[in-house]
Amino acid sequence: MADLQDAAPASSLAEVGEFGLIDRITARLPRLPGVIVGPGDDTAVVSAPDGRVAVTTDVLVEGRHFRREWSSAADVGHKAAAANLADIAAMGAVPTALVVGFGAPGGLPAQWALDCARGIAEEAAGAGAAVVGGDVVASGIVIIAITALGDLQGRAPVLRSGARPGDVLAIAGRVGWSAAGLALLEAGAEGPAELIAAHRRPEPEYQAGPRAAIAGATSMIDVSDGLVADAAHLADASGVMVDIDTGTDALAVTEAMQRAADLLGADPRSWMMRGGEDHGLLATFPAGVQMPPSFRVIGRVAGGAAGVVQVDGSAWTGAGGFDHYR
């Protein structure tokens, strides 16, 4: 995708034009075998061998989800794609295609848009999916809206509502890294670099979702809003209580997290419990089931009041994660 970098440095979107931008992007998007009709027509056509299609959408807004002074255009593209691809994986499906809506001011450098498109395409390719179409509009700020499609490959979808008392609670992926990186950026700190990188460009374990489904996961959710908040969504949908054990290896405070906490005078556990956008996969499995190696146990499912989340045996009473309207 490096050849997307072909706009003159001084070119703005207003100079390149809507259709010029679309042509530059679509001419370089790779085609995958499952794409019957790719970008360039009124709609794309994507094969659905299973007969069902998993569909999700997510919107990233400049100033709310990213800041251009903190992240490169490619970083923003990777992050936008990851937010959608992780939701597909959380259903136990395999990502197949993305459709992208892009809004931006006319004065935005065209190269920024091309680099963002490259980031989206690279992240999609890493998950086995392709960008198959989209739209471009003028907007006061940069807005990226992505719809992702996925293939269940003949399996039942893994819903939030399947957890049962006695199940173990497990996670695949990072917890709290993105939140720590955001706090560092807000403070003007330059490190730990790996935490800042995790905020700019999350690294979900896409393959862990389908593998969890094959292994017998009873429920699953993408941790996008925060561990406690998303555990509560799962518990509420399943009519159960969830108990998170912070003493497990998966929730141990890493050396980088501790350094960031010491630098900022913060509690690293707060980042881990409340921080979102790492896009780890939180799942429940029947006790004794052989889980995929990516998953690590962090708690258990119990009967009780639906939607209640306990942390180390005590009910969590504070904010559990991000809410756009609170």
Question: Would you spell out the secondary-structure blueprint of this structure?
Answer:
Layout lengths: L12 H4 L1 H9 L8 E3 L7 E2 L7 E8 L11 H18 L3 E11 L5 H17 L3 E9 L4 E9 L16 E5 L4 H11 L5 H8 L7 H8 L3 E5 L3 H12 L2 E4 L10 H10 L3 H7 L5 E6 L9 E8 L6 E3 L2 E2 L11
Parallel strand pairs: 4-5, 9-12
Antiparallel strand pairs: 1-2, 3-6, 4-6, 7-10, 7-11, 8-10, 9-11, 12-13
Helix pairs in contact: 3-4, 5-6, 5-9, 5-10
**CATH architectural grouping of the largest domain:** Alpha-Beta Complex
- How many strands in all? 13
Structurally, how many domains make up the residues?
2
CATH class of the largest domain: Alpha Beta
| H-E string | HHEEEHEHEEEHHHEHEHHEEEE
Rg over CA atoms, rounded to whole Å, is: 20 Å
The fold-level CATH name of the largest domain is: Phosphoribosyl-aminoimidazole Synthetase, Chain A, domain 2
Q: So what's the overall shape? A: globular
**Which strand order spans the largest sheet, edge to edge or round the barrel?**
8-10-7-11-9-12-13
First CA to last CA: what distance?
Answer: 39 Å
Bin the helical content: 25-40%
Low-confidence residue ranges: 1-5
Strand-residue proportion: 15-25%
CATH superfamily of the largest domain: PurM-like C-terminal domain
Comma- or semicolon-separated keywords:
2 domains, four-stranded mixed β-sheet, seven-stranded mixed β-sheet, disordered N terminus, Phosphoribosyl-aminoimidazole Synthetase, Chain A, domain 2, alpha+beta, globular, 326 residues
